Amino acid sequence: MLGERGWWWLWISCPGLGFARIRALRAVAQAHQVTLADLWSWPLLRLQAALRWPDSLMARVESYRLRKGMSPSLLVPDNALFPLDQDWPISFDLLKRPPLAVHWSGRKQCWPALSAQKAVAVVGTRRPSDHGCRMARALGECLARAGWPVVSGLAEGIDAASHHGCLAAGGLPVGVLGTPLDRVYPPEHEALQAQVESAGLLLSEWPCGARVQRSNFALRNRLLVSVSCALVVVECPETSGSLLSAQIARTQNCPVWVVPGDALRWSCKGSNGLLQEGATPLLSPESLLDVLGPGPLAAARTASMPLERSRSSSERNPSLLRCVDQGLTLEQLSAALSCSPTQVAHELLQLELEGVIEPKPGLRWRSV
Questions:
Q1: Which end of the chain has fewer CB atoms at under 10 Å, N or C?
Q2: pTM
């Protein structure tokens, strides 16, 4: 027997039903004081009279209902968050296009901070200047040490630098993906994505196996902003998706901070333009913390700070370095060391953060 979450999952999985039509379905249920389970058993003509959907769509709904049966059995993903769940961010429902579900992987205890918008988003171009990369990494480190979850999109450039900084400081990174959880984009970020999942949280609007579309990467920006209390644009050109994030932030009364950039550099024209429009200049990570104060994880970080540094990854696993020097891929490293790809990815990322190795194309690395 399906519970309330099961009926929600059943309806939103129906072909042709997006957020607007699911909203209409819920409105009908509320108007008639019935549940989604009750609507499932309504005769087609009654359902059509109440919803006034096109005949072609009603035919798809009816075909779906007949295929599932009147007493459907459906496996609801454990890692799916729905609007009726306690940890669902209310800010999602205020969007023009709210998600119907969010799929996540990592530490479930991250959700209360995100639901309360107690996180900071750091975004920017995929091809930043050295200054932009250094600033993004410094922001990630500084925010993590102050107890703030660091949210970004796991793209190349600014996103990756902010996540690396957060991880280096032992913080809680949150990656909002433009792909399903079972896909890594770009492929070179397999190690980084695995580490973000281990230390924090990955979330995606799309279920595993879903087709990846270019528009997905722009759509994720609204979720990234919705779980944050501040947005920092480090560096971006005039055609960047970061400008969309800033626009969404303004509609949600989320403060926008911008790092001033080289006025003659193409990758800074969009972010400098935000400053002209009234965004707050960010000259140092510390100035952001002067306004935000300590984050929701500050007390827990203080209580759990280690007394001494642990050995470096290179000291713990010299055989990994030897294999890296042989030019092995992640899959080959996993086989050679008899470890899972996730374990190897974790160690590789630590070596990257320590400046011992650097990534190469084709999921390979080399010693620095």
A1: N
A2: 0.81
**Nearest alpha-carbon partner for 74 in 163, 164, 173, 8:** 8
The confidence score (pLDDT) of residue 360 equals: 73
Contact assessment for residue 89 and residue 118, using Cβ atoms and an 8 Å cutoff = no
What is the spatial distance between Cα 311 and Cα 278, in angstroms, rounded to a whole number? 46
Q: Which residue has the tokens 């009147």?
A: 70
Asked if the model's pLDDT at residue 316 lies above 70, the reply is no
Q: Which two tokens stand for residue 136?
A: 């993004």
Q: What is the enclosing helix (H) or strand (E) of 173?
A: strand 173-176
Task: Note the pLDDT of residue 306.
Answer: 47
| Tokens found for residue 125 | 């171009």
| DSSP labels, 5-36 | HHHHHHHHTSTT--HHHHHHHHHHHHHTT--H
Which position has the token pair 């999985």?
13
E strand intervals along 19-137? 80-81, 102-106, 120-123
- Torsion, Cα 278 282 283 287, to 10 degrees, reads 120
Q: Over 90: is that where the pLDDT of 283 sits? A: yes
What tens digit of pLDDT does each residue of 199-223 get?
A: 999 999 999 888 888 888 989 999 9
Q: How many CA atoms lie within 13 A of 82 on its CB side?
A: 17
Bridging pattern class, strands 80-81 and 102-106 = antiparallel
The span from the CA of 140 to the CA of 144, in Å, is 6
- In the predicted model, what is the mean pLDDT of the chain? 90
User: Are residues 188 and 57 in contact, defined by beta-carbon separation less than 8 angstroms?
Assistant: no
> Which two three-digit tokens encode residue 37?
């389970």
Residue range 20-40: average pLDDT?
95
What's the one-letter identity of residue 226?
S
